[in-house]
User: Fold these one by one.
Assistant:
Number 1:
Amino acid sequence: MCGAKAGGPDLSGVDVAKETIIQGSVTRDGEPVTGYVRLLDGGGEFTAEVPTSATGQFRFFAAPGTWTLRALVPGATVDRVVAAQQGNLTEVAIAV
Amino acid sequence: MSRSDVLVDADWVEARIDDPKVVIVEVDEDTSAYDKNHIKNAIRIDWKKDLQDPVRRDFVDQAGFEKLLSEKGIANDDTVVLYGGNNNWFASYAYWYFKLYGHQDVKLLDGGRKKWELDSRDLVDGAVVASRPATEYTAKAQDTAIRAFRDDAVAAIGSLNLVDVRSPDEFSGKLLAPAHLPQEQSQRPGHIPTARNIPWSKSANDDGTFKSDDELKELYEGEGVDLSKDTIAYCRIGERSAHTWFVLHEILGQPNVKNYDGSWTEYGSLVGVPIELGAAK
């Protein structure tokens, strides 16, 4: 297992200009954490959830607007509010 | 049916993990998750490769289901316990298949893979694969009492309960797919007119376990679903609505609930059918 990587997973094959991407990584003391990241909409409703990769990374294809990321890992839950735009990568590093 | 017949917790599974008549089956959206690690003695069913017709858009047929379960070493009198990632979406979908083809004893592991992981329970290395001797599985004909087709969905507008279990942004038309997937799709956005938007996620806790019977009943009735009427649940491809079908039909014991597996990827591509846009009223 390698260490944590910044940014989201590989984007090859995805038309980034058309998508509204929110991505990043979840780490504890700089090391990747196995867990889950949920995407909640502006009203706090669940929109999607992904497991983190072996390198702690996650990605969502959202729509422009304000979102909340919720990292669920053994023993901790951490929320981050983000604003996303179409064609731009919104990068979020979550330390738990 | 009631909760205790269809839902088991991790302690129940751990106590029977070596019982040859209990078959633990992982069904994940990410079909490679099993290769990373899985519950000891669990076998894998691939929702895409194993459960779909390889050419047409439809399920594996009765003979195909018999062949699959025979090869996997599942017998008619085995207890099948399904679990998976993503809050048991695809495990629920597989559960619905097992019921569609008449398997008697099938259960879901409450919380699925996520709760198991968050509780730091043991998983074995992905390369350790349990082998089960082949069986001669006999499936029943498809039980269409639990499956809705496109004409049923159109006929239900304004008369039956239509429950759209996608996220509010998919219901309104802002998103075309759950947000862990790219959004470029061919179908039109929106929802079936008169459908109530009751996202599957409202029936589950953050750890993926189902809410209590009372909370679930209150959820659907509070959203204006008359449980005495027939209900059709749908989502994008029928897996999240299988999760809601499980809640209504299996946990709450409502007899008249169907899953529309064609769901939005079919309905949103039909020519001439009515579509509504915008948030729930």
Number 2:
Amino acid sequence: MSWALHRIDDRLIHGQVLVAWGSRLNPARIWVVDDGVAASDWERELFRDAAPGIEVRVAGVGEAAGAHAGEAGAPGAAFLLVRDLDTARRLAEAGARVEEWNVGGLHYAPGKEKVNDYVYLDARDRDAARALLLAGVRLSVQDVPASRAITLATLDPALAT
Amino acid sequence: MSPTRDAEGAGETPPRARVPALIVTHADLAQALVRAAERVVGTIEDVTLLSNEGLSRADLEEAIETSVEGWKHGGLLLTDFWGGSCHTCGATAARRHGEVVIVTGINLPLLLDYLYNRDRLSVGDLAERLQTKGRDSIRVQRGVPA
């Protein structure tokens, strides 16, 4: 069982993840993989408490990469959340084998270009996306289960160049 | 008639600074709740509204912090549900600002109770009261079999 969703979403744990994806896939565990959150006692505690009834594990990229294969065989479904494409790329480089990422929310920030209503990318994001695509990883854009999944490369022609 | 004027009539209780509130929700729920509350109590003042629409964690945290940093004696963040970005970003933003307390699961009865008690209770007492009032407002009415 275990890995049911690998998601790139700058809000990490939030409504769409808990309610929409959570109701569909019933995760027993949610891994929040983020070096910044893992380094902050306060934020670790905040996310651990954010999902009543679900075990939340907060880990840095190195720790999560080391635990990734073991978690794949654990009972119950698990989600893994990262906040950006670069973290997904670093997780792959550290040895985590993820075949497909759900791209769920990369919101606007200065310097980012609109790809759709909830995905905005800059050069750094695109570098990370290209590296993942080159490694054969699928990047599937879909905010909630009820909406249609579409590949990131289809939405963003700049990734083809 | 406004809840403000009602509270002034309380008399005995010593004057207390009004507890300000920021309502942070998905989409335009905050506006809709306040519009609905205004149908009941009239014009509402001193409540700030914010939507998480299109905002990253960082931007939502910043927007919340901008709203609460002017509060001298704390205040309440009212958000839609526990674990949502409005709640978790609110918790991060509020952490640096003294007595800012978050109540999640806002509903219309909870909002109305806030309006009628914000001039007489402390931030902490008001938060506890709203938790109880919000919960107690959810009840089941079954039909009677014909």
